[in-house]
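sanity check this chain:
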Amino acid sequence: MNTRTQTALVTGANKGIGLEIARQLARAGLTVWLGSRDRERGDAAARELSALGDVRALSLDVTDEDSLTAAAARVEEESGVLDVLVNNAGTVSGSDGPPSTVPVDAVRNVFDVNFHGPLRVVQAFLPLVRRAPAGRVVNVSSTMGSLTTLAVPGNPLVRAPFLAYPASKTALNSLTVWLAAELQGTPIKVNSVCPGINATDMNSDPSGQHPSEGAEVAVRAALLPADGPTGTFFDVSGPVPW
């Protein structure tokens, strides 16, 4: 009988939705690698969750390939396998704006975290996910990245005065689809999820839900059964169009 404890990595997990994803996965009995760019904050978050189970702080900067190489080596040495990979780390830019005026550097910086970051993480950790009996890759996206939703006449999202963040999530959704296609025929499932509007330091909307609510849809994707979907995009209510 195999009694191995499943292992998960959550990036950007020292606060907000990432912290709540880590909390819920630890509560579900997984060993959780809590990825954090800031080592002290990561250590503090891991201590906060330690009563729930085996939660380990992992220094990890999604924009730094050396950091990712070192992090993957540590996970390989201590766990040997990765069952769940949650690409949660993300950012916005105070310089974001509409296509006609947004500084290109602002777009580049957001893409480096929100798209290139998950791509780097996938390339660093996929060898460990392949070792799992049924690996899961979850990309935390946004309905703002849905081109179909954006193109609907009268959609209020069109009035949003920025490009970098939604475009980066559109690119992230592309990564989901292409990676799922690459992994067809394997037990690995790759999906994008939208956690909705949450009260975090990235969001100025005071009506946002608690991050623990947003985390639930990511955890659902992380724990999909064998007959669950792959290459899809969904939120708490169901499918989201690409």
Q: What stands out?
A: The radius of gyration is 17 Å. The helical segments are 16-27, 39-49, 65-78, 104-114, 116-130, 147-150, 164-182, 211-222.
